[in-house]
Design brief:
With 373 residues, this protein is of the alpha+beta class. 35% of the residues lie in helices and 25% in strands.
Length: 373
């Protein structure tokens, strides 16, 4: 606590800058201006004259006499009777320490005293900066065993703002087209938020004569907790996947669990499936485990003579399309991209590279196509 009626204003500015830098270099704390104390005990609220000692004036003292600036510095006014207003300065333990105070000196707080820091204490504080973990991480990812992907993830407890990326090569992306959010930047990435961007099929990325699939990524963003810009560098090494087996994603693990449960249903309906073998072949799918709500409704439709409801492929993975239609990985990937769109035509499906009349017939037989009556 400090009196709000200093006799020497120049000395007050010096002292308050020392105090603020010392708190930031230590464990943080609160400075109350407008309370007179004796022997470290408050004895009187003498208030401050906001005409000569304002929030802005204190902020200017901090900005001009402390380097680097203290992140998260808060200055507020507690109103009291006329002439008895109190200023409160809240300072958190700074991850940007050490902060140099007046006279090119580093200060720390020890009990109730402000003291210059020794050299080893300053070096210890520099290590505090090294211990700050990044908010934004960039990782390799997969979609099944066909597609590679890139995950952008905020692993910290604070938002990252104005996030910008620089990739060492556009070969990482299909057609050499960097996704717009990565090209133009992301305004804010919240705590725990993850964005996944499609890269290429592994068959293209890891082709025999292609350059090594290793890419450097520079990430630049504002750390909202530290109030300063951070720069990180990551390496996306897709070569590590060469010759490896695909790992099931969370979604695939759920699908696997559901498939086991559906096996019990399949067995219970075995007699019905046997009697309706030809018709059910259109509904059950290549692996014999796709007895979903669609399938059950269509079994009822067959038995009642009603038209069969076709499946929607919008949320089917490339792997599921490959298995169901008995097509190669590349064509399955192209179909997946088409079905992810809100609108497309039957002609676009026919014009996909690798599409044949036979495959188109199987597709029309099992899946709904927009525009069909």
């Amino acid at each position: 606590m400090k009196s709000g009626r200093p006799k020497n204003h120049d000395r007050f500015k010096l002292d308050i800058a020392q105090d603020m830098s010392a708190f930031a270099n230590s464990d943080g704390g609160m400075i109350i201006i407008g309370v007179r104390e004796e022997k470290n005990n408050p004895v009187e609220i003498d208030g401050v004259d906001l005409g000569t000692m304002s929030r802005e004036a204190l902020g200017q003292i901090a900005a001009s006499r402390i380097n680097p600036n203290i992140p998260g510095l808060k200055i507020s006014v507690l109103s009291g009777p006329i002439g008895k207003d109190v200023l409160v300065i809240e300072i958190e333990r700074s991850a940007s320490a050490p902060h140099q105070g007046p006279n090119n000196t580093y200060y720390r707080r020890h009990q109730h005293h402000i003291q210059p820091m020794a050299h080893y204490e300053i070096e210890d504080l520099r290590l505090r900066q090294i211990a700050v973990t990044p908010l934004v991480t960039v990782r390799t990812a997969t979609r099944g065993s066909i597609l590679s992907a890139v995950d952008i993830l905020n692993t910290g407890p604070h938002p990252a703002e104005d996030v910008r990326f620089e990739f060492s090569s556009s070969r990482l992306w299909e057609g050499g087209q960097t996704p717009a959010p990565l090209l133009n930047g992301i305004r804010q990435l919240g705590p725990g938020q993850r964005l996944r961007f499609r890269s290429q099929s592994f068959s293209n990325l890891l082709a025999k004569d292609s350059p090594p699939a290793i890419f450097d990524v520079k990430v630049d963003y504002i750390h909202t907790r530290l109030q300063r810009r951070m720069q990180e560098k990551w390496c996306l090494d897709f070569e590590a996947y060469r010759g490896s087996m695909s790992v099931l994603s969370d979604e695939q693990q759920l699908q696997q669990t559901a498939a086991k449960d559906l096996e019990l249903t399949r067995r219970a309906l075995e007699d019905v499936a046997r009697a309706l073998k030809d018709a059910a072949a259109r509904l059950i799918g290549a692996n014999g485990l796709d007895l979903s709500l669609y399938t059950l409704r269509n079994l009822r439709a067959i038995m009642s003579g009603e038209p069969i409801e076709k499946l929607s492929a919008r949320y089917w993975s490339a792997e599921a399309l490959r298995s169901t239609l008995n097509i190669d990985h590349e064509l399955a990937s192209r179909l997946e991209r088409i079905y992810e769109r809100d609108a497309f035509t039957k002609m676009e499906l026919r014009n996909i590279d690798g599409m044949t009349d036979e495959i188109m017939a199987r597709l029309e037989q099992s899946f709904a196509i927009p525009g069909e009556s």
